[in-house]
Amino acid sequence: MKKLMIYVCLFVAFLLTLTFNAQAQTKKKGISPQGKGAIIGGAGGAVAGGLIGHNVGGALIGGAIGAGGGYIIGNEKRRSDEKKRRAAWRRAHPKHHHHYTKTTTH
């Protein structure tokens, strides 16, 4: 029974990987980086938890921890990409990016 659960977890992780690859190739906008990180982390955590704990409880705990970690990593990637995009826009549009200085009159 334990080996069956391990094989089921591996099969589900494989199906999730195929689904992400298919969605990434067919759509420009799909799942957010946070969502991708959560799903990939959850699947990986479930497989690792199932292999380490040799039971369903280990798979559930590993999946939850992996999903949380994946979400955090995906969120940081999104923030980094957004910061780079804004910096590139500022470089391309220097006229629109003003630095205000105080002027004094005597």
TrEMBL record:
Keyword terms, alphabetized: Signal
Region (Disordered) location: 71-106
Extent of Basic residues compositional bias: 85-106
Compositional bias per record (Basic and acidic residues), positions renumbered to this chain: 75-84
Residues in the signal sequence: 1-24
Domain of life: Bacteria
Name assigned to this protein: Uncharacterized protein YcfJ
Species for this entry: Mucilaginibacter lappiensis
